[in-house]
Design brief:
Elements lengths: L5 H17 L13 E6 L16 H18 L3 E4 L9 H11 L3 E8 L10 E5 L6 H10 L8 H7 L1 H30 L9 E4 L10 E8 L3 H8 L1 H28 L1
Helix pairs in contact: 1-6, 2-8, 5-6, 6-8, 7-8
This protein binds zinc ion.
């Protein structure tokens, strides 16, 4: 990284504070209220995502789950923004631009996993970090980052030391909240079936690198017969929707409580 002077550092901190409170391009929102959730159905259009053994397409499955969540969360009084509502391709950069413009309080990206290890099954919940938890997490991020068009924002950021520092600060500010939601979501998902959860993990997912707490949920493995069967069933999808809605509402209550205590 280039050398930064003392005056430069205070400018960076001032800029960082501005970025953290103003989120350029974001709608003007009451930050003490948890009122807007962004639900991101992975893939879409020519990008089908993972394919199940019985032909289930990830893009279709995750859109159904996202729409189910949106309906339930709206009934619960929240504003919900979907990054896609149809079977269309939306580049990853566009997805977090939509989320930032909406001034979302939480970003939940829905995906279904696939592995060459035929025995791999169960849910995983990810938050953003430059380093992946392990090789398998690295592979998942690589696969899910394929929908990126153009230059990676993180690569842009590292080219400029000031932007790189700002980027790091933003991530640090939201990573604690992302982990908090990831844990709640993982607990709710792990209660659904007699299948051990694969836990909360971290990896460099481009789509999670926005201006709010963000997680990526891999509901289960389309490459595993019983996971696929469960995910493609109406009751399985209803259970996933209920678990994730419960997690969002619990996180929202904790978020508002924290603000009131300040
Ligand atoms: Zn995916």
């Amino acid at each position: 990284m280039a050398r930064v002077t003392r005056a430069g550092i205070s400018t960076i901190w001032a800029l960082a504070a501005w970025v953290l409170v103003s989120a350029p391009g974001a709608a003007v929102v009451d930050s003490s209220r948890f009122d807007t959730v962004v639900i991101d159905a992975g893939h879409g259009g020519g990008d089908s995502g993972a394919l199940g053994l019985r032909g289930t397409q990830e893009k279709t499955l995750v859109l159904q789950i996202a729409q189910g969540m949106a309906e339930r969360l709206r009934e619960g009084g929240l504003q919900v923004v979907l990054t896609r509502r149809d079977d269309v391709f939306v580049p990853l950069e566009r997805r977090f631009a939509i989320a930032n413009d909406a001034g979302g309080d939480l970003f939940v990206s829905i995906h279904a996993n696939a592995s060459t290890d035929a025995s791999a099954h169960g849910p995983e919940v990810y938050f953003y970090a430059a380093e992946a938890t392990d090789e398998s997490a690295k592979r998942v991020a690589k696969r899910e980052n394929r929908a990126l068009r153009g230059e990676s924002p993180s690569e842009d950021a590292t080219a400029d030391p000031v932007l790189a520092i700002l980027g790091d600060l933003k991530r640090t500010a939201f990573s604690e909240e992302s982990v908090r939601f990831a844990r709640i979501a993982e607990i709710e998902l792990s209660r659904l079936r007699d299948v051990p959860s694969r836990g909360v993990k971290q990896a460099p997912f481009v789509v999670l690198n926005g201006l709010m707490p963000a997680v990526l949920v891999e509901v289960g493995f389309l490459s595993h017969p019983s996971d696929e069967q469960w995910m493609r069933s109406r009751s399985g999808q209803r259970q996933v929707v209920s678990a994730l809605v419960k997690a969002v509402l619990a996180y929202g209550r904790a978020f508002e409580k924290k603000w009131q205590a300040q």
